[in-house]
Design brief:
Layout lengths: L2 H5 L11 H4 L2 H21 L5 H13 L4 H8 L3 H13 L3 E6 L2 E9 L1 H21 L5 H21 L1
Antiparallel strand pairs: 1-2
Length: 160
């Protein structure tokens, strides 16, 4: 009996979930997503951060400054939520806002030197959390999993 099978058995040894349901990729992905989100959210909370902070800081470092709308598109964070995220990051001096010279009605957001340092910390935290999440897999299996998940996501992003 595998670990996954054992985790799906109550004390009396009878499966608590039908086998055909336990073998569905969609269900496994969904359950792993819930556990992954919990692990990542709790881990980032330990350093007073959340995944949206990481997404914005990573976007700014990798792609450069951008407006709120640009950052929303890069990260998938709704524009209405982006305001709050940027406010939190600005209050912590992790990003800087400056008027857009081409359109004074909007701001351009830039990562600050403190934001760069904080992003390095978040990278370390996330590396450790991903090691925990993917603990049963070796390096080649981890790479393969990321490639397969990327392929699935790209396919479904193109077709939707």
């Amino acid at each position: 009996m595998s670990r996954a099978d054992a985790a799906d058995m109550p004390d009396d040894g009878a499966p608590k979930t039908p086998d055909r349901l336990r073998r569905r990729a969609s269900r496994l992905l969904s359950q792993l997503s819930v556990r992954s989100d919990r692990l990542i959210n709790e881990g980032l909370a330990q350093v007073d951060a959340h995944k949206w902070h990481y997404a914005v800081l990573a976007s700014l470092l990798d792609f450069g400054p951008g407006s709120q709308a640009v950052l929303s598109g890069r990260t998938g964070i709704y524009r209405s939520d982006m305001v709050g995220v940027l406010n939190e990051l600005a209050e912590r001096d992790l990003v800087e806002r400056a008027p857009d010279p081409g359109d004074r009605r909007r701001n351009i957001i830039t990562i600050s030197p403190q934001g760069r340092r904080h992003l390095r910390l978040l990278d370390e935290v996330l590396d450790d959390l991903h090691d925990e999440l993917l603990a049963p897999l070796g390096p080649a299996e981890r790479d393969q999993l990321v490639r397969l998940l990327t392929r699935l996501l790209e396919h479904h992003t193109r077709t939707s």
